[in-house]
Amino acid sequence: MKKEYTNGDVAIVWEQEKCIHSAVCVKGLGEVFKPREKPWIQMGAVSSEDIIAQVKQCPSGAISIKEEK
Ligand code: SF4
What we know:
The protein is an alpha+beta fold. It has 2 helices and 3 strands. The chain has a single domain (2-64), classed as Alpha-Beta Plaits. A 3-stranded antiparallel β-sheet has the order 1-2-3, with helices on one face. Iron/sulfur cluster binds at residues 19-25, 58-60, 62-63.
């Protein structure tokens, strides 16, 4: 199952099955990755550059970036 969360510029593609719950994303960018909330990925607060940089740190590939433009 894939889900997408967009800010109109970039989207995070989320593949739950791949996630190994390392919490790298949550520790690195807690304004976006909020595992206790729904939706758990909230794109509002942070620049696209910061989102892209954090997504690249994901060790499992559960989150990836899709350019919207
Ligand atoms: S960094 Fe990747 S593997 Fe770790 S919790 Fe986030 S999405 Fe899952």
